[in-house]
Amino acid sequence: MTFPQVSISGGTRNRLLATLSPGDLDLLKPELETVALEQDAVLARAGDEIDYVFFPHSGAILLMIDMADGQTVATGVVGCEGAVGSLSVLGASPSGITAVVRAAGTASRIPAPRFHAAFGRSPGIRQAIQKHVRSMLIQFQLGSACNALHPVEARMARWLLQLRDRVDSDVLPLTQHALSQILGVRRTTVTLLMGNLRKRGAIRSDQRGRIEIDQARLLAAACECHRVMRIEAEEIFSGDKVRTRGMAPANDPRIPEIEADDAV
């Protein structure tokens, strides 16, 4: 697939790249190119070799599992805090997931072999990727538990909030069909859930491939997994000691407060 080259101003907006020292970044710069990520573009396909490692500056990429019967389900989402394809440093093997751009944006990309070489040379790059891997493992682990234990309406609210975190907007580029693929449920189930959330004021509108949410009310409808994912990921990147899972305080300053009137 062709990714048009673009330029961005103001330096890197990718959190992983921003943590690197100038010397470490110099190992990547000769091969880095900035490209546009169009909605529905496939960055990696399950079963194929990983050709590039992508560092998003904006937008949101979903990591999807494709089942033999054609069903799909999302296992994680990556935005400007992470990278897509970086797990290829663990060894040569086909991609286990399909990475699809859900919200358009931009990214820096580098050929995977070049990134592997820099990874081998630089302790700083290895440390940054280790933090990213830990953050993704939290998504995978909590997401697995969430899928097994929490109602689908709370899970849908969580996914909407995770996407909202990456696009930094209350208007999400989503269709009900895309949501059914993310959740691994029927389209009719999504329609029912959308109606429920609309009655609660958590969804303001749903038309023409755009879903407008009310963040505070959606937080009230979601399970605790979104809150815990955000806190634990922030602690990993900030270097704070990670609290025991499930012990995230309700008044953590990094998580938006829900006013009593908002939750009604």
List the helices and strands and how they pair.
Elements: H1 15-19, H2 22-28, E1 33-37, E2 42-44, E3 52-56, E4 60-66, E5 72-78, E6 98-103, E7 105-111, H3 112-121, H4 123-149, H5 152-167, E8 171-172, H6 176-183, H7 187-199, E9 203-207, E10 210-213, H8 215-221, H9 225-238
Antiparallel strand pairs: 1-7, 2-6, 3-7, 4-5, 4-6, 8-10, 9-10
Helix pairs in contact: 3-4, 4-9, 5-8, 6-7
Quick check: average pLDDT? Answer: 88
Provide the low-confidence segments as ranges.
240-264
Q: Major sheet: size, sense and barrel closure?
A: 4 strands, antiparallel
Number of strands: 10
CATH topology of the largest domain: Jelly Rolls
Rg is 18 Å
Strand order of the largest sheet: 2-6-4-5
| Tally of helical runs | 9
Broad shape: globular
Q: What helical percentage do the residues reach?
A: 40-55%
Q: What is the structural class?
A: alpha+beta
The helix-strand sequence is: HHEEEEEEEHHHEHHEEHH
The rounded distance between the terminal residues' Cα atoms is 46 Å
CATH architecture of the largest domain: Sandwich
Oligomer: single chain
